[in-house]
Amino acid sequence: MAMDMSSVRTIKKPRVTAGKVVIYMLLTLWAVTTVFPFMWVVNNSFKHSSLVVNDSFSLATGEVLRYDKDGQVVRERIMQDEYGRDMYDKLLFDADGNPVYEGAQQSPTINRSGAFADLLSGMTVPTDEANAHLQAYDTVNGKVIYDESSPPVRLSPTWDNYVSVFTNRNVNILRGYKNSLIISGSVMVVVALFSAMLAFGITRWKFRGAKAIRSLIVAALMFPAFATIVPVYRMLSDMGLYDKLEGVILVQCAGNLAFACTVMMGFINALPYELEEAAFMEGCGPYGIFFRIILPMCKPALATVAIFTFIWSYNDLFLQMVLLRSNALLPVCAILREISSQYGTDFGMMAASVTVVVVPVLIVYALLQKNIIKGLTAGAVKG
Amino acid sequence: MLYRKKRPLLVFLLPSLLLMAVFLYYPFVENIVNSLFDIRGLAAARGEFLGLGNYRRFFSEDPVAMTSFFNSLKMMGLTLVFQVGLALMLALMVDSVRKGQQLFRVVYFFPIVISATAIGLMFNLFYKYDGGMLNQLLAKLGMDKVLWLSKESAYTMVVIPTLWQYIGFYFVIILTGLAGIPQEIFESAAIDGATGIKKIWYVTLPLISDVLITCVTLAVTGAIKVFDLPSVIARNGAPNGLTHFLGTYMHNQAFVAQNVDYGSTISVIIVLMGVAVAQLLNRVIARNSEALR
Hints:
The complex is a heterodimer.
Chain A: H1 2-11, H2 18-44, H3 49-54, E1 63-67, E2 73-80, E3 86-93, E4 99-100, H4 115-122, H5 127-134, E5 153-156, H6 160-167, H7 173-204, H8 210-220, H9 229-239, H10 245-269, H11 274-281, H12 286-297, H13 299-315, H14 317-323, H15 332-342, H16 347-382
Antiparallel strand pairs in A: 1-2, 1-5, 2-3, 3-4
Helix pairs in contact in A: 2-16, 6-16, 7-10, 7-13, 7-15, 10-13, 11-12, 13-16, 15-16
Chain B: H1 6-34, H2 53-61, H3 63-96, H4 101-109, H5 116-127, H6 133-140, H7 154-179, H8 183-191, H9 196-207, H10 209-224, H11 228-233, H12 246-256, H13 260-292
């Protein structure tokens, strides 16, 4: 079949038509909408918040901020002179954050050679005062090198946002990761194992009530978390499991089992009996058969279930929000929500937190994309 | 002979059944009962029996509830048109080109693996009035700043990322369906003179109707459960509860305002809506497939 398809394809000559070009343009446009937002965030996570607010589209290449003699804020672009020393080209900004190049208003490009003279002649500061303040020490090539008298704040690239994300006492993302891994990892393992066990039992034994259990499982697929959360919350409080990781794990396990059982029942039902019969003849009991024969054969279905369960659990904000309260126990999503409510105006830190959460997922996605896409869509179609 | 003993059966079934009984079936029933009583506070016991009083309140006395109800209803319609519709168009386009299919799949799908919370935070940065990305873009184009989350536009602004995130999901499902159509059918259709739009309408779409039905069902039932993005972008239905959905309003009533009985009522309404929509879709689909025969 695959052979046929490919031969058909090679017979048809690929033609470049106007229609194709338009289609590729539209497709690329949509790709831009999915990729650009994340690139924007990553780029801005390396900038100081004041720079994000003013100029979020520039690349996070070297820029510093300092106060000039009049206490005015100036931004300077970091460059290196031919001796490898930092030198700064001065940029002034108007109220809207648009660059104003005083003295060189006709040409918005930075005039590196002879910049010192240009800048000084255009500035409102009298020359000798400026000289006193700005102590240029390399005037041989006519370049400006300011002294360190007003310590510069590095605007970009800067790791400051990441430092504040990782060292923040109230919202500790690393701890959030740990909590997320504990919760979602446990849910994943428990759901995969239990659902395989139930599917094995229901497809292999003949007993009254099997049909009822099957329809109960199908019904459970329709239960949204909203419909069980209040009683669950009250129950966990009574059991002393409210605001405990175990509580969230139990509830998420129950919520994922219906879907997982459906997938596993379909898969195990289709497995051939012969191996199990042979194993039985060799003296293997039902437990041995399950662990040594069924589980190894279920690997593809288990992978689907595991991926789906993990991602669902990891991204599920609702249960995390309702069932956990202590900062120390919050998983990543709940932490993110906290950050947005407490530090919503710190654009750099927000961008860094999103990056910190997105990048690991992105790496895993890049490595496993085929399995993930298959796992999630297969799960949806069956669920 | 092999699977006769009952004890192992119990061992295999009990863990799952126990978990689901305790944390799914029992709370589900209890929740319905709760919605009929007066319960003030998360730890409070059941009070007076109200019958359908809470339901009456939802449909006749609570403007925010109505807003959230219609917001969720509108959301269903929008997912139908924009999620499934756009996904279908993208899938048809990707299917028609040969190079880069895999790349488009990977790129389109990837917002789905990102948590909605992170996406919500990202859109917060876009929508901010002072220094948000969209307003910076407007400034670059020489236009005035816009209050993106105003009364008039907040709903749209919350809906856009919700729709955007999941388009890739339906795209992949539809694309898989398209790939399953045998090439011969298109060849014979081409001999019969079907090309372009005609081919899509009379040949392709009927052949992937099963897949489309799945997508529609998933999209519409998913729309009722919307929670994460609205709760991050517009807290408590800001402004003025205008961006509340059934899910966020349920959370607000049960866990913020502590109107536990009323929250339960809203969640029962969510379930009923889900069942009703699923039934309706099944009906429509059954009628259509009969008409095709």
